[in-house]
Write a structure and sequence with these properties.
Layout: E1 9-10, E2 14-15, E3 20-24, E4 32-41, E5 51-52, E6 62-66, E7 73-74, E8 78-83, E9 86-90, E10 93-97, E11 101-107
Parallel strand pairs: 1-11
Antiparallel strand pairs: 2-7, 3-6, 4-5, 4-8, 4-9, 8-11, 9-10
Length: 108
């Protein structure tokens, strides 16, 4: 499967997030990392029903794998966006990287 491949989805299918990788540059002193996942149904940004991980994430430099999302989403028909912000705390600053997202087109 490549980035351009489409997965046929239909209402009632379930979606689970797994094996997400994030990287911390060597010159960034990170205090804490939070990772959440949100499913925005039919273009409506709602932060209810988010996926959260119970894990404490490594804060040392390098790339780390996250695979502990326990909840799943049951998909409804429509066009949706999954947004996965990664929040890094550097000193007293909170830095949100919300550049990771993907779109879903779910049929009947």
């Amino acid at each position: 499967m490549t980035n351009r491949d489409r997965i046929p989805l239909k209402a009632g299918d379930t979606l689970r997030l797994s094996n997400l990788t994030y990287c911390i540059p060597s010159k960034t002193p990170v205090n804490r990392v939070e990772v959440k996942g949100y499913l925005f149904s039919n273009g409506v940004k709602s932060y209810k029903g988010g996926l959260f991980t119970p894990s404490t994430f490594p804060i040392n430099a390098g790339c780390h794998n996250i695979g502990s999302f326990q909840k799943i989403w049951k998909l409804e028909a429509g066009q949706h966006r999954v947004n996965i912000p990664i929040v890094k705390y550097v000193g007293s600053n909170r830095i949100v990287d919300d550049s990771f997202y993907f779109n879903l087109d779910v049929g009947q």
